[in-house]
Every structure is written in C-alpha cells, then in structure tokens.
Amino acid sequence: MGKSKKALVMLSGGVDSSTCLYWAKKKFSEVAAITFNYYGRLKNEKKATVQLARRAAVTNLLEVNVPFIKEYSDYYKRNLLQEQSDLRLPSYIPARNMIFYSICAHYAELLDIKWIIGGHNSQDAEFFKDATKGYIKKINALLRQGHPVIGSNTPTILLPLSNLDRQKVISLALKMEVPLELTWSCYNEGETHCGQCYPCSQRFGAFRSLGIKDPVFS
Q1: Top-level CATH class of 6-217?
Q2: In this structure, which of 64, 121, 147, 163 has its CB flanked by the most CB atoms within 10 Å?
Q3: What is the pTM of this model?
Q4: Does the structure show a pLDDT above 90 at 80?
Q5: Model pLDDT for residues 37-75, shown as the tens digit of each residue
Q6: Where are the domains of the chain?
C-alpha cells in the first residue's frame, strides 16, 4: 500500500462500510471518513454514520450534501419495481460510484490522502456492476490519467471486502469488534429494522447462518 499513512473511508452507516472503517483504523495511522447525504437519505443512516465515526474516534467526518442524487425508487413506485425486477433495483442510483468516488478523490487529493476505502462485498457486485473490482480498476486508471503530475501520490481506491460475502464480512466485523449494534441496513425509517426489505433479509440471514443474534435486536 505504499508509504502513505492516510485513508479516507466511504461510510454509509451499514455493516460493510463500518467494517471497512475499523479495518482502516488497523492499517493506517490517520483515518478520515466521508458520507453522502443524497435525496431522501434515511435519518437512521445519518445517525448511524455519526455514531460509528465517533465510536471509532474519527474526528474528520466529511458530510457531503448531494440532494440531486436519487434512487430509482424516488422516480418510480417501489412496489412496481419490486414486482417486476430484482429487489435491489429500488435502491439503485444511476452512476452512483462514478459520482461518489470522484468526489472522494477530490477531497482525498486536497487532504493529501492516498487511499480511498470502499465497502463493496462480493454479493454487491453480482447486481451492482459499478461495485465490481473491474469497474473500480477502471476508475483508478482514470484517476491516474487525470492527474497533471506523473508519479504523484494519486488517490487510489481499495476494496478490502471485495472477495467476501455477507457472512464473511460479519465474521470479520465481529473479529475486529465493530459495534454492529450501531449500524443501520434497513430501507425503511423506523425505531428498528423492519426485517422484511432486501437488505434486512440478507443481513439477518447472514447472522442466522453464523448462529449469532443480530446485535441491533439485543
């Protein structure tokens, strides 16, 4: 990973990004986090992000407001999308990672940060093609090509969870003592996770397969 001691973690408030945050804390001496407040982002996600950063002693949390960015479900009826296609489609954001990582690279360069940490796991890449290793490799190539100084410390994206499924991510999170009780995965706003939406079912299924109770219900 070179000589750089700084990392910028893209933090959403979920299991994957919080695991990346704690992974980065072990790998780098200086860790900042960045989060994106897109249109209709859940209050529970924002709350989880702030709490996770605070628990990890990350004092530099960049909150970027991008109200023009919307999920498919903000344009089309969620029920209609769920009936006709993959249950993940309602949360799809057109050009999401191209936009988000470009913003990350902008801040990383200004803050003299080499490494940008993304929390995409192997199951994400099955549907969200902009979360694949090949796609991110192309973004890294563009970042290098776009920098005016050859051989400079160009920001580079790392995907520490790219070969792990949800079960393995949770196992890693438990090993690193990530406060999973603070995370939020649900598509819906409420006091607790609904247990019915796609991310809830995937999350709870992974915990069940490990024979562990999800701490958000402890």
Answers
A1: alpha beta
A2: 121
A3: 0.90
A4: no
A5: 999 899 999 999 999 999 999 999 999 999 998 877 767
A6: 6-217
